[in-house]
Amino acid sequence: MGEHVKIKLASLALLGSVTVGATPAYAGAAVFPDQSTTSLDAPAVGNPPATVGDEGRLHLASDEQYVQTFGAAKAAARGLTYQAGDQAVSGAAADRAGSHWSVVKFSAHDKDGRYIPTRQGNREFGWVHFSGPHNIHNEKVIKAAVNEHPESGSTKTRKVYGAVLYDNLGIILARVKVIAQYHWETSDKKYKLADHDDKIGVITAFCQGSNKCPDALNRV
Question: Does 132 fall in a domain?
């Protein structure tokens, strides 16, 4: 009888040593040292790891604003350089053209006061041209890019603007370029506005190094 009680106590002692999530080490059971135990602090199954630095909000700014915020050295270290182009200022008028391609969806002004519209366009230029193929369908992206002085490579009639998507640590996740025609007709002279004081505006917008911009760009 006494021996039977001792065996029961020994069994309880073994059970008491089992940790939460571990495989119970019953007497006579095979031991598998390569099986990992589950920590109580481990994330729930199905929760993906964070892919953005600091797990914070994403931000959108023109190239110029990013350099002003983080400094030229830090921007250059992350592959971004900004150099202003020509600084000529010219007046502009609101859209008065009536055909479908020329309808203005929205507009913005750059740091020199230039009126830069984004027109409905078609498969060759404008909103229709870049919104689907390049996955830019939030007007905030275009407005953020235009909110700077034209970048290097701009001419009197062709303006280049840029914007970056970055996280709370300043890590750049996407680089956007916007090309605008600052003239009343396109460079190939196929499309013309009746008002010669008006501007064609945004020809295209895209993310450098990728055919399609990330979806996160449209959610900022």
Answer: yes
Residue 1 confidence (pLDDT) above 60: no
DSSP single-letter state for residue 51? -
Query: Is residue 43's pLDDT more than 80?
Result: no
Rounded-to-integer distance, Cα 110 and Cα 118, Å: 13
**Within a domain: 118:** yes
- SS3 of residue 163 by DSSP: strand
In a domain, 24, yes or no: no
113 vs 206: CA distance, rounded Å: 23
Say if 172 falls within a structural domain.
yes
Q: The tokens of 128 are what?
A: 């229709």
Contacts from 100-105 at CB under 8 Å and sequence distance 24+? 101/126, 101/191, 102/191, 102/193, 104/201, 105/139
Give the per-residue pLDDT at 204: 98
Output the CA torsion sign for 23, 25, 31, 36.
positive
Question: What number is the average pLDDT over the span 64-83?
Answer: 82
Per the CB < 8 A criterion, the answer to whether 218 and 135 are in contact is yes
Q: Kindly state the percentage of the chain with pLDDT values over 90.
A: 54
Average pLDDT of the chain is: 77
For 45, list phi and psi in degrees, rounded to 5.
Answer: -60, 135
Question: What is the extent of the structural domain holding 209?
Answer: 56-219
* Number of domain units in the chain: 1
